[in-house]
Amino acid sequence: MQQRRRKTHIKTRQGAALLGFGALALSAGTAMAQDANFGGLDNDPNAIRGFHLTYGAGLTETLTDNVRGTASGGNLLANGAGAISTAGNGREADLVTTIAPNVTLADVTRRAQFAFTYTPSYSKFAAASDLDRFDNAFTGTGNFDLWHEHLVLDTTASVSRQIINNQGAVTTSGLNSSVNQTNVSTFTLSPTYSARFGDFATGQLKYLLGFTDSGVTAPTVQNQVSAGVTSGNDFSQLQWSVTLSDTETDQGDQSNSGELVNSAVNPTTTGNLSDRVAQAQVNYALTRSLTLLSGFGYEKITDDTVSANNQSGPIGSFGIGVDGAFLHFKLNYNFRYGSQFASFDGSADISENLKVLASYGESIQTQQSLAIQNASNIGFAGTQNGQPGFTGNNQLPFNPTPASGGINNGLGNASFLNKNGQIAVTGNYDRDSWSLTLQQNSQSSSQVNFNETTLNVTAGYQRQLTPSTRFNLNLGYFNVSQTAPSASSDNTYDAAAGLSYDLGQGVTTSGTYSFLYRRSSQSGQDIRANSLILTLNKAF
């Protein structure tokens, strides 16, 4: 057992060393580029140009009547097998003081984009002193043109506090504790080499290194290599591409197997997931905006943890693509993973101030590969309220939560069929801005007898009452339903409303009331919590 633990430790440190080396390369790339007119940003008065550095500090006082997320039947405990149990009794009220300095850095030039925001925090619980904790939150991304038109280097990083199992104890938003929560750290590094073969075609070779660790699933290193050729200007209506890819997700050896961490048991089974694909895509443009899509190839999936998941065979798809002035989407019917399904990815600009984004797809995943995939999509979005912003999937604001059901919802390290669909609507009118997001996710694995579906609906509204005062309202609904290993259904409702005020001289203050209620089909697992949150922030 000691030998197995030592092997995992070496792999983890190797991954961290490689990512650290990449960070040094990024710093060198930043020094190489000094032109601050990247991508036509001169036309955007809110865009960041050149070097941008801000820092500040925040003080938050949170008064809550249920600091541990205690259910009606007692404290909820979630283990690695997905079983939920109760222990103890009685809700606890507490006053939590959180001190959080922050620093944000961005450097935007013609050949480099680099941005990150880092917020360490310390929370002191007046009554429940065993919950006192120090946390780190980090989001970063970089894109560097190391060899113009040939070599590009991308890197991303995400460190955040996440729910282990959404059927376990939960509290009102913004309250970090040691109850049913864990730190998730994910990093990616990806160089891409491109070469043009005249007007005939463009070749591309891409490598992605990803690493993630949460403490409640096995630390994982992912290596992905893909090579492809895409048609060039010699082909007008007929467009084609050929791609070969190999993705190896290595969970290594589980350290501290069976240890109870934050009320969740580390799963003891680990292994590798391999996905190798050879695929050709042939598209035909009927008009400037309408294209017929088709693809065919061969895929081999090998799963060391669940041998019954191993599969290989031909894959294919056909569909249509629309690329108009206001409407953009791709709709495909796919033959893959031993079944047939439709996939969709698109957006619509209803008006200058109203936009709709939608997507649906299916894939074979692990919780760790989902975290790496989620982090690898971090992009730089310029400024949001004067600060660098980050995008994620579908160009929506980046959400560090990789799985809506939790980091370990009971599947542990096993692979599963992941079905994910979402619709997002954003609007901005005069002094009002609002958003509505609906996301449905299904994770199922017949080999380990697990099937869970989640539905998450969030709505946000903000109105500028005066030049210095804003009203904020956020509403949420979350449903998690399991049919295996046991039948259960939980419905969670949450709401937060408050005012923020700009005092001038870089000082802002806000007051927010937050409410959470969960209704569970399992006896004794209903949860109710109220919080009053007062914050004071200073930007230097």
Briefly, what is this?
By secondary structure, the chain is mainly beta. The protein has one domain: Maltoporin, Chain A, CATH 2.40.170.
Describe it:
This protein has 540 residues and is mainly beta. The protein has one domain (2-539): Maltoporin, Chain A, CATH 2.40.170. Helices cover 8% and strands 61% of the residues. It has 2 helices and 28 strands. The chain has helices spanning 2-32, 367-376, and strands at residues 50-64, 75-78, 84-87, 94-109, 112-125, 133-147, 151-163, 181-197, 201-213, 220-231, 238-250, 260-261, 264-265, 272-285, 290-303, 311-323, 327-336, 339-351, 354-365, 379-384, 387-391, 416-429, 432-445, 450-464, 469-484, 488-504, 507-520, 527-539. The strands form 4 sheets. It has a 22-stranded antiparallel β-barrel. The N and C termini lie far apart (51 Å).
